[in-house]
Amino acid sequence: MENFLKDKDLWILGSVCLVATFLWRRLWKLFSVKKEKKTSSQADAQAKDDKDKAKQSLKGIKAQKKRKPVDSSENTSLSEPVLQEQVEKLNRQNTEHSHANTEADAKKRGKDAELIPDGPQTSASQTEKRKPEKESAEEEDDGDVFVDTEPEEEEEQQAEEDGTEKSRKASSSKRRVTEEDLVKDDLKKSRVEDGQVENADRQVAEASRTEDTDESRESAVKEFIVDLSPPPSAPFDHRIVTPKPHQIATYYTIKRDEVLGGGRFGQVHKCIENSSGLTLAAKIIKARSQKEKEVVRNEIQVMNQLNHANLIQLYAAFESRHDIILVMEYVEGGELFDRIIDENYNLTELDTVLFIRQICEGLQYMHKMYILHLDLKPENILCVSRATNKIKIIDFGPGKKVQTQGEAEGQLWYA
Do residues 262 and 285 lie in contact, with contact meaning Cβ atoms separated by under 8 Å? Predict the structure, then answer.
């Protein structure tokens, strides 16, 4: 039982301690809240005090600003004795000047009396009379000086102010004048510079125009300079050729590797004459039948009648059992057809005009000789060289000599 009571006492003590701690916490919180309120109220009060002080300081500053003219009046009152001293100095100076003037007048009058000997008594009496008059006048002048010093000072101050204002105006006007002069000078300089720049630009533009006109003239001259000269003639004279039954190898060396052209008739190779070393072209035509040989003989007869710079010339002919070889003028430019279809070649209208003109000249000559070509096409036109527009017409196999005008003949594709 005693143990139980002891335990009960411990429990009571523990519970009392817990209640005490709880109450202490509550009280601590209350005190802390009150302190915080006090501190916040104090901070607010300090802020209000600061604001009031700031307002009061602003009011004081404004009051001081308003009181400034009173201070200026005080300054003027302080400056009055200084002005009085200046007035007294001016009065003294005036009296000294007046005494000096009177002495100068007395000296002049004494000289006049010496020059007039007859009237010494009158002069002396006059001088005696004048002395009191002068003294009274001097006294009046002195009094006037003392009386009129203040307006004179005011007038002097006004004159000084007017002089300062005039000097300021003059300086400002001078500055304005100088600034205006400077601006005018700058404008003149800028105008002169602009005029120089414009003149330079005009000169450059005129020079460029003259250059452009010169270039255009040169280009125009270059465009209109057309080479109308005929192509070079054959390196041999025109001759009448008859087929020889001999072998060509005894007179010419045919280069089988160098093929200049070809078609249904055969191939054209480059050949060299053994005796002279002349470069020619050998056209090897396969003619096994008699009809085929007649066609080749007709071509030989037609070429014997043609002697024109735009028509290919025949040099020799050799006939064998299975073919006939025609030795002709050598042209290295290739076919006109290959030149037209070449992507690297730029065919212009002027080039076509030159080509067509030469073709027409060659055909005109053939028609005068009553000969028709009957197979005119770009493949049957050779260029003398790649650098020029000179051409020569070839392949007169289908050609025909006519006696009268008849119907047109030839290939339909190139009609």
Answer: no
Residue 382 lies in a domain: yes
Domain with 287 in it: 248-414
Query: Residue 260: inside a domain, yes or no?
Result: yes
More confident residue, 356 or 162: 356
CA–CA gap between residue 76 and residue 82 (Å, rounded): 10
Tell me the C-alpha distance between 174 and 171, whole Å.
5
CA proximity to 397, closest of 235, 285, 319: 285
Residue count (the chain)? 415
Whether residue 341 sits in one domain with residue 199: no
Assigned domain for 407 exists = yes
What sign results for the dihedral spanned by CA atoms 55, 60, 63, 65? Answer: negative
| Confidence (pLDDT) at 189 | 59
Quick check: 283 and 328 in contact, CB under 8 A? yes
Written as six digits, the tokens of 147 are 């009386």
First to last CA, the chain: 152
> pLDDT tens for residues 325-346?
999 999 999 999 999 999 999 9
Predicted pLDDT at 156: 61
User: Any binding-site annotation on 286?
Assistant: no
How many Å apart are CA 216 and CA 237, to the nearest integer?
44
Q: Is residue 357 part of a domain?
A: yes
The whole-number pLDDT of residue 40 equals: 75
Residues 195 and 324 in one domain: no
| Active-site amino acid positions | 375
